[in-house]
Amino acid sequence: MHPDLQKLLEAERINEAVAERLDKIAPGSFLLHKSWGAGKVVSWDLASKKVTIDFEQSSGQVMDLQFAMQKTEPLEDDDFRARKVEELESLRELSKSDPVALVVLLLESHGGSMTVDALETEISGAVVEAKAFKKWWEATKRSLRENKRVVVPARRTEALTLRAADLSPAQALVADFEAARDLKGMSKALEAIINDVALFKDEPEYLQNLLIEIDESAKKGTRIHLGQVLELLSLRDALIKSVDDLAHADDALRLANVLLAEEARLADEIGALPSARQRAIYEVFPESFGDRWVEMLTTIFDSVGSRGVSEIAKLLDEKGEMKALEEHLISATARRSLGPDALVWVARERNGMAKNVFGPDVGASILALLETDHLADGPRTTTRLQAQLGDDKTLLADIVNSMGATEARNFGRRLMECPTFNELDRKSLMARVIKARPETGELVSGEQSKRPEALVVSWESLERKQAELDDLIRNRIPQNTKDISIARSYGDLRENFEYKSSKDMQKMLMRRKSELEKEIDVARGTDFKGADASAANIGTIVTVKNAQGVSVTHTLLGAWDSDPEKNIVSYLSETGAAIMGSAVGEEVEIRDHDTDKMVNWVIESIAPYNP
């Protein structure tokens, strides 16, 4: 105890409890203030009840004795924060000579755990120059991971954690696995073990015990967390392959059996996994499905995401089974059912693995998917596909060069009418088409004279659009604003799923509002009465006949009035555009949507449409 206090205690001027508390702020002791940081008590005057402290942020600070006891907390002499006050130069030297020891010292002073942000606050500027901190921390992280004394998280928002000092590197990795609170954490820890499996050369018994824990956890999680179970079992199998004396228990859960039992759920679950894990899982398909393994891979091809389609294609190519994938892709593009990730892969591999698939149907499928996604009420799924069309400077040229003249014109027309693109992008894309196929240039030069600038629509469809816009402005956008405000209150926007989801919805709603306003602005309502039936026009019923004598009747109506089941087509649609302006007896080419082939038809009759 400080001599000044001992005298007061002996004179019975203070009691034992007060003396012990005052001793914590005696000269030479270290304190922590919330605002001023760590400090060292320089002197005190017990008679006037004042104490002078040199804080990091406020040197020579004079405080009332009672106030100092209330607003500070004592620090041990070996605490990192105390040493910053007393031994700053030695800490700076330590940051250069042994950064791992520096971090360990800091963590020991903070209960063994702290975030990277908190670590940066303690070190940057004082111990390590602020401008050099980022480079220093990247190098230190590598050293920490090699040393194994500290658990270094993948995310900056997660905490650094100090391991027990008496653990060997192998034991430290096992401790991380045992500390994992969920399947995802177990997979992460198991991957670290695989990366440093050589550490277990003298301690193989730890790995055999791990297999038991993995099996128990996988059996419990299959029903609810199938994707994470597949990842964990795949990593377990990779571990077994890398260690000679390691083997499955006789009753262990096998990856092949899980795949077979859960085949209906595989596409959605596998798609979220890293590429390497997906590949390892796909390689087990022959064992799981026997003769059906190729069929299973082609079935899930459209649904496993961008990483999955690449890995499946590579595997099938290596196994000599590419023909099956080609047949699947050709059929799916003809039906316009191929997903955006698969179409992106076909476009990228058009001169490689997908060269036998790439053709006119791919271009038509891309536009059809972009249009459908644009009109869908929800988050967009074709962003990457749209970016591919814009970023790949030769893609459009390759598409139209695979088409006949009529097909190229129809593709160009659909591209010009596709609502997904803004006016500037549409012109830029169309310029590529015209450069590759000059005959499509008439679409640009003659578009304004062929059709009125305004959109001709039925009054009913115009009212529907106006009602949708009104609902957006009055209900959906205000509600979304409230949702964003609520989500923001949950904190940490970087990891806040509700906030990100609400912001994505905001973008979609505002984009839709802008589109509706533009569409309504140029729309001209009509009841289609008095249409000129001397040729196929808006508001006419057109009957066409093919070479086999089959007749089909199309009703040409407004831009938003298509109803395929009733053979009502928009004058802007591919079929409507092909018929528009034709007279009785003239021949037109119309796409058969069942076969996707162009068929010649003759205009048989034209009559006014009577609502």
UniProtKB/TrEMBL annotation:
Residues of the Transcription elongation factor GreA/GreB C-terminal domain: 535-595
One protein family per Pfam: GreA_GreB_N
Keyword Nucleus tagged: no
Keywords: Elongation factor, Protein biosynthesis, Transcription, Transcription regulation
Record domain Transcription elongation factor GreA/GreB N-terminal: where: 457-523
UniProt KW S-adenosyl-L-methionine keyword: no
Top-level lineage group: Bacteria
UniProt xrefs under Gene3D superfamilies: Transcription elongation factor, GreA/GreB, C-terminal domain (3.10.50.30), Transcription elongation factor, GreA/GreB, N-terminal domain (1.10.287.180)
InterPro entries referenced in this protein's UniProt entry, alphabetically: GreA/GreB_C_sf (IPR036953), Tscrpt_elong_fac_GreA/B_C (IPR001437), Tscrpt_elong_fac_GreA/B_fam (IPR023459), Tscrpt_elong_fac_GreA/B_N (IPR022691), Tscrpt_elong_fac_GreA/B_N_sf (IPR036805)
Any one GO MF annotation of this record: translation elongation factor activity
Protein name per UniProt: GreA/GreB family elongation factor
Organism: Haloferula chungangensis
